[in-house]
Amino acid sequence: MPRSRRTTVEKLRIVATNGNRPIEAQSKLDPRLVDLVRLLARAAARDFVRSEQDNRKRGRLPE
């Protein structure tokens, strides 16, 4: 668990922007985000395969 930096904000300013203008795509994806998505996809695939194998062992049809 990350250590708390013990910082506080006295005032918070929120600025709304026009939703009609297009959002510019980033030229390069964050590699940490790519790694996280890959990790989650692998875990989901592993869980799916495991549940299918369990269903076949019990002789049940997939849900």
TrEMBL record:
It comes from the Bacteria. This is Uncharacterized protein.
